[in-house]
Design brief:
two-stranded antiparallel sheet, transmembrane helix, ABC transporter involved in vitamin B12 uptake, BtuC, mainly alpha, globular, 15 helices
């Protein structure tokens, strides 16, 4: 008996040996994600020098929207919760960063650390709102959940109009932002600096989301999405998981709204209407639910579609009133038609279609070589 016990390794050593492969996988996943983020960051810097200032501003807007669509992808695609109120969460982050920047300006405070502090405050305030909504959403299902998030999308912009002494009503608030650092040179384009700021914040958010999806929490998100009863029997706290998913999604939506406010240097209730929430949901469905790359396609569509509709109205010879009406309603109509076409032709969205095409090409490549 004593010889047998001596031959067996201690219990903690067995646990450590069992955990080492998982630790290696986590480490390799983190390193792989870091390598991708660094490569994309270097690519953005190179592109910012190659394109004109307006394109830099458009890319920065795509990055800001990507924060919101990536968070909504985690919530709807990975956890199965429907949200029609992410535009309101973006408004929460935008107004928070505006209030913080104005407070710093009134006190004469300057420095490059103020904007990250304001962005952090925007994330914290949106997390608080998302936690409250998430607790309510965890008790609801189906149309009731959609109704609660829809109410949030309507109420939050209305609060900005009601308390006009704080939020300045329909006119909104300005967002004072300091110019680029003097070390970059006196003629450094401001749009390029905007792209660097939003790109860095978005890449950091995507790095955290990508590692979250690959972690134990990501697996619990998918388990709850697939079958809540089975997840509960497996020992997963379903309500806590749903609240966590909503909080994570709200944090990225708040960051996206804050970045949009920094880019526009202003914030108003009209910029975060119910239409924006519908656009965000349709964008992640068209791009591909459950994939961060699908969220990227959705963000690109959110920025490219208004330009396309504006160009279309300029080509047509219409009266100013009709052109203005079309420019306001045409994007929603095109989004709806695109959603119908994508759901029929590619149920997995744009990214799902590209993935299938890539697998088909890889399957044919060995046959062609042979």
């Amino acid at each position: 008996m004593s010889a047998t016990r001596a031959a067996l390794p201690p219990k903690h050593e067995e646990v450590d040996a069992a955990d080492r492969p998982a630790d290696r996988r986590r480490g390799s996943t983190l390193l792989r994600h870091l390598a991708v983020v660094l490569a994309v960051g270097l690519l953005l810097v190179a592109v910012s020098y190659a394109v004109e200032p307006f394109r830099n501003f458009q890319l920065a807007t795509v990055a800001a929207y990507l924060c919101a669509t990536a968070g909504l992808t985690v919530l709807t695609g990975l956890n199965g919760q429907l949200s029609l109120g992410h535009g309101a969460l973006m408004a929460t982050g935008a107004y928070t960063v505006a209030l913080c920047q104005n407070a710093f300006a009134e006190r004469g405070m300057t420095g490059g650390w103020l904007l990250p502090l304001s962005l952090g405050a925007a994330i914290v305030s949106t997390v608080a709102v998302g936690a409250v909504v998430g607790v309510a959403a965890a008790r609801l299902r189906g149309p009731y959940l959609a109704g609660v998030t829809l109410a949030v999308a309507v109420v939050v912009p209305a609060l900005a109009v009601t308390f006009d002494g704080v939020f300045n009503g329909e006119q909104g608030l300005s967002v004072p932002v300091e110019p680029p650092p003097a070390s970059l040179g006196p003629f450094f384009p401001y749009e390029r600096w905007q792209l660097w700021l939003t790109g860095a914040a978005t890449l950091l958010a995507l790095l955290l989301l990508a590692n979250l999806i690959r972690s134990r929490y990501g697996r619990t998100f998918r388990a709850v999405r697939d079958d809540e009863v089975a997840a509960r029997l497996a020992g997963i706290h379903v309500a806590r998981t749903q609240v966590l998913a909503f909080v994570v999604s709200a944090a990225t939506a708040g960051l996206g709204g804050a970045l949009l406010a920094v880019l526009a240097q202003s914030v108003s209730p009209g910029a975060f209407s119910l239409t924006l929430s519908l656009f965000l949901l349709m964008a992640v469905v068209i791009g591909g639910l459950g994939r961060l790359t699908g969220a990227l396609w959705g963000a690109v569509l959110l920025v490219a579609l208004p330009d396309l509709t504006h160009s279309a109205t300029e080509v047509l010879t219409l009266s100013p009133a009709v052109a203005q009406r079309l420019e306001g309603n045409l994007p929603l109509a095109i989004f709806g038609l695109t959603l119908i076409v994508v759901m029929i032709a590619a149920p997995g969205g744009v990214q799902g279609l590209l993935s299938r095409l890539g697998r088909a090409l890889l399957a044919r490549w060995p046959a062609r070589r042979s």
